[in-house]
Write a structure and sequence with these properties.
The structure holds two protein chains of two kinds. Chain A is mostly helical. Helices cover about 50% and strands about 5% of the residues of chain A. Chain A is elongated and about 80 Å long. By secondary structure, chain B is of the alpha+beta class. Chain B has a four-stranded mixed sheet. Chain B has a two-stranded antiparallel sheet with strand order 2-3. A two-stranded antiparallel ribbon of chain B has the order 4-5. The chains are: A mainly alpha, B alpha+beta.
Amino acid sequence: MYDSGKIIAGLVIFIGLFTSPFWYDLASGTALQTPDLVLPTKADQKQCVASLEFMRRDHMALLNDWRTQVVRDGITYYKSANGKEFEMRYTKTCLGCHTNTSQFCDQCHNYIGVTLYCLDCHNMPATQIQGPMAAKILNPNSEILNKLQIQN
Amino acid sequence: MSISRRTLLKLAGITALGVTAEKYATAHAGSTAAKVLSKAVGAGKRLTKSNVQQKVRLAMVVDLRKCVSNQGCTKCIDACNRGHNIPDLGDSKDAIKWIWKEPYESAFVDQENFYMRDEFKNKMVPVFCNNCDNPPCVEVCPTQATFQRPDGIVMMDWHRCIGCRYCMAACPYGSRSFNWRDPRPFIKDINPDYPTRTKGVVEKCTWCDERVDQGLLPLCVEACPEKAMVFGNLNDPNSEVRQLLKDNFSVRRKPGLGTSPEVYYLV
């Protein structure tokens, strides 16, 4: 083989450059991490509105159904499989337990690259806002917030 | 396979007979349905969805004789703006309006008289969505984002709105507003119990559907210090709205357009 030294050196440099994004990710510590959910610890609410398997696969369909029923059909309560009734409200019922969306929703949605826009319109109860949404919603001079703080 | 002239003529004849029979059948069925409807409603009354099938038809009565908006009162507007997270964009061109003031002549364009009662000259009238019985906005919405509830409220499902603004073109009252930009930074106090909207969505007054569902009165009605606004069931002959309409002369905005607006103004 002619010029084997140059060719092999060239190949090594090429492979190094070609795979550099992977090395960069590993070195900078921003490599993709698997979802790490923090489950809510609410004393009076141990069970979600449906089973774990169902919620994992079909939570989006459930939310769509709730939306249609509340907005269009005037049905506001949902009866779960074990007979318990829940008010069909995303902010009050869902986020009432899962108060920190960045530790729950965003974990998987970021992992699979799905951008959520629920909170672009829905407001979390002022007393519960945590995570990146807080800066967007909370206004230190807010009259409503002051009222809530006085009440609580 | 070939068809003889005779068979072809026979087949053509049978087809023509079938088509005519079907047309006749559907036309006949239509006329019986209309007969049943007119019987249910009573002769001489206009057929609308509400008086055919509804027990509840919500309506609003605004007593302009009591309203003091000319003296600078904006209590109904303030209550609505705060409760529904309506931004103050500071520019009338892209303002979001659910309830606002309009001069009498422009609120009631077809009733303008050169000489009229002094107190109604330059009178500011609180105007908002008429939640029409025959809403043109619902008719044109391509995604069914806006629709009529059984109690008559013309509702919006903001999730479905694609921002085409057909409804804004169809509404003769200018009751609909478009979000040209993200409203959140322009809301002084976000009410956490009510959603905000996003850029590219149309919005309007829905007579506080979320409060009506809980058995509460709309915010503007509750906020009015003069009790000039009354809200109730038009289909109940004993309701306050019906009593007011029975005892007073009322006008509606642009009734000639056939939208059947459900806000009645006492003058």
